[in-house]
Amino acid sequence: MASSVLSYNIFNEVVLPTSVIGPESVAFDLGGGGPYVTVSDGRILKWQGSNVGFVDFAYTSPNRTKELCDGTNDLDLGPICGRPLALSFDYRTSDIYITDAFFGLLVVGFNGGLATQLSTGYKYLSGIDVESYSRHVYMTDASLTYDISSVLSYNIFNEVVLPTSVIGPESVAFDLGGGGPYVTVADGRILKWQGSNVGFVDFAYTSPNRTKELCDGTNDLDLGPICGRPLALSFDYRTSDIYITDAFFGLLVVGFNGGLATQLSTGYKYLSGIDVESYSRHVYMTDASLTYDIRNITQPGFTPDSTGRLLKYDPYNQTVTVLLSGLSGVGGPTANIHRDCVLVPESVNKTIIRYWLEGPKVGTTEVFLTDCGDVKNIKRGATDGEYWVATSVLDVQQGIRVNESATVLETVSFTQFGNMTITVAQEKNNALYVGSSHADFVGNYTN
């Protein structure tokens, strides 16, 4: 009994060659030789003992060159270098069958070298197993819609650190030139990132009564009526103005030089999300409740009500129109690129609603996406017709990339945030920027 409990309890590393990573699959030949492993630079390597280490055994791409590919982990080079994911021996022939993310199903003989392509046309061929008696090869095709580039995108994490004692970057935005990120923070300011040598600097603020001595670094919501609490921001790219929703000061706008924002519309209990559709210049906002404000949500036993609203502000005549009411746990909305609908998240119902602005369904709603967790915000993606949804699913912080047809294209887990609820995932400059009301940093995810 003791030997069973303590089996496999001694660990050693079988180290890959320098700069090589990604041994996703491991196999042994009929004589016990190996391990043979797939690696991220397109090769299958074979272990030749501790005196020799791993040596090249096979590869999947006919275009692969050692100069370009050895040691790479760049998926953009996959169509040249290959990316073998799994391998399995046919012990009757000693052939190795291989699934490659770019080259499909292949086979290579016991002498190795360039593998022979057997079957292609897959989006993401992944797992494999050979049943050697029948010699049937069983494979798994991970998706008909996404490929490995989607699965492994945004997997490198860095912190864009806020100034000392400052927390709460709930919203993230970039100006027309790609400058930023601009972030809202808990002490009432909008900060702008000026690069790693400078860091974040003051850009704008929402309260005319704010003082740096009292407010800088605070997270006290009782000081909100003095310091302000901007929750969301969105650029009007036609004017470079930033529209801001503040939990205490309503809807505001500030020019590209920053400073004190101008109040446009007030009288809300809890104005929260915002999106500017820059062609029409219409501003879409969400009002979380008619009964509670931001200070109530931290009280024990708090539950959201169903009095949330979707609003539209018209900058040409300075009017606010109620588009939708009766929303539960409403989050940050986004207009689509066609300007004919707005997507609105409801965290209580774990759904995203589509509200039609134009066309035969104008003024009506329909469910866009269900079972998408505690949704906080939706932002347009870098690719037209795609969106990033910031959500929490079973306490795991996630970004979900979806298209106009509500097809989920990708899910990225933001494990670095732990139990800190994320509030936004904004794609820009080949990176994904993630904010949270509890963090002292903005998460920067790259490939």
TrEMBL record:
It comes from the Eukaryota. The keyword Cell membrane does not apply. Keywords: Glycoprotein, Vacuole. Residues 274-359 form the Strictosidine synthase conserved region domain. It is found in: Vacuole. One of its GO terms (molecular function) is hydrolase activity. One of its GO terms (cellular component) is endomembrane system. Coiled coil: none annotated. Belongs to the strictosidine synthase family. This is Six-bladed beta-propeller, TolB-like protein. It comes from Artemisia annua.
